[in-house]
Amino acid sequence: MSWLDDISKDNAFDVPFESIDLQKFDYALEAVPFQQLTRMPSSIYASTSTAIESTAYLALEDFLHASVNGLWDTFWGHENDITPFYVASLHDTNLRFYQAEEAIAKGKIGGLCASAIMLKNPRHPQGKWDDVIELALLRHDIGNLSKPHISIIGEALFFALRVLLARSISRTNVPLSLSPVFVLLVNSQFGGVVRVEGDLSKLDFDLDNVYESAAVWIKNHSRVAISKVDKIWNKLGNANWGESLKLEIGSVLMLEDSNGEKGYRIDKVFENDGEVPFYIASSVEDPRKPLFLYVGSHPSHLEPAWEDMRLWYQVQRQTKVLSVMKQKGLSSKYLPQVTASGRVTHPGHCRRTSGNCDYPFCGTPVLVTGPVGTTVADMAARFDSDEAITCCHDILSALSSAASSGIRHGDIRPENVIWVKPDMRRAYYVLIGWGHAILEERDRPALNLHFSSTSALQEGKLCSASDAESLVYMLYFCSGGDLPVLDSVEGALQWRETSWSRRLIQQRLGEISAVLKAFADYVDSLCGTPYPVDYEIWLRRLKRQISDEDGSEVETSR
């Protein structure tokens, strides 16, 4: 296949899709479940055991099955509950399709050479080549991070041609949209895609030299597109799970933004259960000032919705929201401030401007903000009266400032509120975590069974009082209110209805402060209505309460 080698060296192949298009598709599938049961075994053991090889094929079939079912249920399941597809694997001795479990049971695992997404065919339940929707080749060595090996590309091309030939002579009505054939190239960590299409009427078939005929057609009359190889399984064998950049204490991260290149030293790492990691860092130029540093997902990663979306909201979306606030002139000590936002850079020559840089994590988005404090979730003690009133005042002040420019938070919870203690000055609270903020009507808030508003859970959007309602829930739980076990939206809504109707929330907050009880009553009266929160009157009442208790003046910055 010297001709194929020559073409590959010249980088003559197109790409089947742009990475950014895949990432946008990932983002659109944020809530789509891809439930897999079988993990891909580690590459360390990939070639040493028949049992491991069997598990690898089961994991590949499971990956294809989860992908097909997840997409079908999302886009077409409301019209037809039964998916028209199934997954099978191909045996090289007779080129027939089997379920991997069946091949394993018959001791034929060594002969499996491909897996496929198949269209169900009642007349031929064993499967035919023209029923193939997509093929996947599982090989130990598929290539490096730039492109697949020539040998596996050649293998994929001949598999694709066989499918094209089967479709061309099929008696079934094959949709025109299936004219290209997609072949996945995967091993236990990485994957790539080959797309093949072309005019089969120009295939000059020679029975005495089948492969030569096929090679001539592929070379002269086909259109081949090949993606680069990318990571699709992590070390635990979970497919579609991104490996985010992990930094260690003492390491220095170089960041490039509009003002040039800056260095940040990692001073502390936060990896709370269920939360994406973030860091406390300090500028190399000014190490005395601590800052929050958030690291996004590497731009070449094609991870899916759950892990990648959380990173995207934490970094890219929050950067956008905070930038909008800055552009609109919002200034409040109760809001986070952007210190820097840019991308990871590195010493030496960078190839990012001309292609994909080989340096690890080059181009990864980073956000740096201040001030730094302790999250309410990490505060060991419950709120007392002073803390609860101060927190309510400060967060309402942040919400008021944002609301003046039409911005709502959408994700108020203990992890997104920090307690800041400046030297020799009053401690205060800052509302962080603006990645899920509502800037436009089409934006959707985060959903949390304990802290989301009733409107967010019922309708997937905020009413005028939703942020205030979430603040009330946070104050209630952080002041000793009973934390129920909630495992469904229906259960969460039932808890809210019962708690408000029996006035359990008002009673608990009333034990702390009369003004907090009154505020909860006020929020209850607004929930579900179009009437906006009167921030000014409640800020004045809370400010007066704080001033009366310690005789100091409280800032309400706008």
TrEMBL record:
* Naturally occurring in which organism (per UniProt): Phtheirospermum japonicum
Q: What is this protein called?
A: Protein kinase domain-containing protein
Which InterPro entries does the UniProt entry name for this protein?
Kinase-like_dom_sf
